[in-house]
Amino acid sequence: MFSLTFLLFELIPLFLVCINPGDDYFNLPQLVTSVSCSGQMQFQHIPCSVKATYRPSDMDVSGGQSLYPLHRCKTIHLVRHAQGIHNVEGEKDHSAYLSPHLFDAHLTPLGWQQVDNLRKHVHASGISKKVELVITSPLLRCMQTAVGVFGGEGYTDGIDVPPLMVTDAGNSNHPAISSLNCPPFIAVEGCREHLGVHWCDKRRSISEYKPLFPAIDFSLIECDDDVLWKPDIREANEDVASRGMEFLKWLWTRKEKEIAIVTHSGLLTHTLGVFGNDCHPDVKNEICRRFENCELRSMVIVDRSMIGSDPSTNDYPGKIPSGVDVPSDDTCIDHPDGLPN
C-alpha cells in the first residue's frame, strides 16, 4: 500500500507532477530547463518516480476538483413542496403557525399551479424518465407535490392498479393521479419538516393517508399516529441537520442511483448547510441557498466512506482475452538514462 502526493508548482504553471513519498520534490522546478517557441518543455534527467502530466493552460486545478467512481455516486433531485396554506397565513402573521387550523397544511390553488409548472419542466428536461424512486415526507403538502410532479397522468376508473392520489385528496379540488408509467413512491419520516409546536408540521395518522394516496408505500413508517411531533417542544436546528444527515446516509442503503426527494425548507436548509465548506463561496451558496416553493435542485452525493457496497455496473475488467500488457512507463528501469519509453 502506498500513497501519492499531488503538488502544483506556481513556478511551473503548465506542469502537474505526481510524486512518490521520499522524492526531493522541492528541487523539481529545476527539472524544467527551458520552454521552446512551440510551448514544449525541455527536461533534464527525470527519475522514474516522477510522472509528468500536461494540462491546458486554461484549466485551473487549484479549485479542488475531485474524482470518484461512478457507482459511489447518486444523483438526487431535491424539491421543496409547493405553496401551502400555512405559507400564506405565516407570511401575514408568524404566530399563525401555532394555530391548529393549519394542521397538516395542504396546497393552495397557487401551489397546484406551481406543481403543474414543475411537472412540465421535469418532463421537458428528461428528469422524469431518469428518476428511479420518489421519496416524500409523509405530510400532506409534500405528498400532493410529489404525486403531482412525478406521478402518472390522470387516473381513469376501472384500471386495475391503485391511483397515487384519489380525487380531491386533502381538499385539493384536484382530479385523481395515476400510478402508471412513473417510478415507485415511498413516504419516509426522516425527511419531515422541523418537528413540534407548529401545527402545520404535524401529520395525520397513516391509516388516514392510505385511502387518499393508495399507491404510496407507507411501510417504512412504524407508528400509525404521529409520535414525533410534540406541542410544546420545537426540534433544534442542529437536530434537524443531524436527522437530515442520517437520512442521506440511509439513501446509500437503496439500490437506486437517481432519486427525487420532496421535502421541506427547514430540513433542506439545515442539512445542506453542513456541506460546501471546502468549496468556492459561490458553490457553497449554490448548495445552501434557501429553496423557494416548488423549487427543484439537482445534486450529486458521493460515498467516500464505503457506506454503499453495490459493485459498478458500468466498469469492465479488461484483459479479455488475457495477454501481456506491461505499461511503457513501468519499463524505464531497463534504460540506463532513466527515461520512460
Automatic annotation (TrEMBL):
It holds the Pfam family His_Phos_1. Residues 308-341 are annotated as: Disordered. Residues 1-18 form the signal peptide. Residues 332-341 have a biased composition (Basic and acidic residues). Keywords: Signal. The keyword Disulfide bond does not apply. The keyword Signal applies. Belongs to the phosphoglycerate mutase family. This is Phosphoglycerate mutase-like protein 1. It comes from Datura stramonium.
